[in-house]
Structures are given as structure tokens and as C-alpha cells.
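Study this one:
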Amino acid sequence: MKISEMNWLQVEEYLKTDDRAVVPLGCTEQHAYLSLSVDSILAERVASEAAAPTGVPVFPVQAYGITPYFMAYPGTISLRADTYLRIITDILDSLKRTGFRRILFVNGHGGNTPGQTAAIEWMGENPDCRVKFHNWWNAPRTFEKVKQIDPVASHASWMENFPWTRLPGIEQPSHQKPMVDLERMRTFGPKGVREILQDGNFGGYFQRSDEDMNAIWSVAIEETRALIENWQ
């Protein structure tokens, strides 16, 4: 169930028998030739498809994250870390106040991981609640499937190129881009990052077959669904 397709009366009825919720976390940032909303699209879709058979409501994606390194690419929006941590805490406070006690964040952006620390701190002050923070794309089973298909995979490369993150009429380059020196790149600000990355792909092919992508997607859905279903 998507919260956007429910009214408050239906949510109140749901909370009489269950207290789980799923909240996708995304970002708006450059992804080479793919949509600027890749992280949001994927996080929300993974969350929705994984939760569908469980009946657990999925909230709209938090579409802005922490991504200061891409600020030289037009269309990118970055939140300050302290702003983001307050957003995570406010979301959790709101969910608890209205009756939710078990919350799964399905995160689609590596820069958002400080939110996990905020969630842990919040649980210390709210011991009656449980929070899981799930980086869906590099979860053990999903990332192992990625590596089985092609170990050269990274930001804005083939591993994020699904039919629903591509843009109509935009051709993807056919070559395999060499991997960038990530340690060197991390010593530069936004302008230097853009000079190093150019189009934005960290390295690898830009696209693989839909068969490969569907194989990864199936594992990601199963792995995420298991977290929704199994609260130990």
C-alpha cells in the first residue's frame, strides 16, 4: 500500500493491527545520461514492490539528500548534513506520534548514510521503537549479484541503468569507462570532481541487457521484502 493511495482513516484502521512502515530515501543529483532522480526512483520502486504483498504502507520518497560533491552539475540539490539529520528525526518523531513503531528506511543514496546514525540516536531516546536502515543497492545479496554480472560497476554506470531510470531519446555510450581514482577524487571540491568525472559515471559500462538488470532487481526485491517481513 502506498500512503499516497490511502486516506487517514485507512491508516488508522491499519494501525489497529500493525505498526510497520517503509520510508524510501533518495536524492536529486547527476547520474551521467540517466535521470537526476535515479536514487529516488529506485528507492521508491524497490520499497513499493517489496512491500506490496505484505500490506505494509510505503511513504513517499524523501527526494533530497546529502550530495555536496556534485554541486558543479546543474540540477543537483544537496542538503546540509545537519538539515538531513533533522529531517530523519522529524520523520521518525511523526511516525511514532501517529502510531508506527517499526520503520524501515530503504535508502538509495550513499551520501545519506549519516541518516543511519541519526536513527540509532533516535532509538536510544525511543526504546519502544525499532528502525532499520537498508542500503538496497549494496545489500549483501544484491551487491553479490551485481559483481557476478560485472565487477566494474559504480555510480551512474550500468548498475543504475534500469528501464525506469533511462530517459527517452538519450543514447548511452557503448564503451567501458575506466574506473576513476576515488581516493584522489575525494580530495577535490565540486569543480574538481566534475573535471575528473566529466560525464559523471565513476567507471564501467553505461548499460547492460535488461535480462541482467531484471536479475539484479529480483534479488533486490526479495532481500528488501525479507527485512519488512522479519522483525526479530
Summary: Helices lie at 8-14, 38-51, 81-98, 114-125, 140-149, 182-185, 190-197, 210-229. Residues 3-227 form a domain with the Rossmann fold fold (CATH 3.40.50.10310). The radius of gyration is 18 Å.
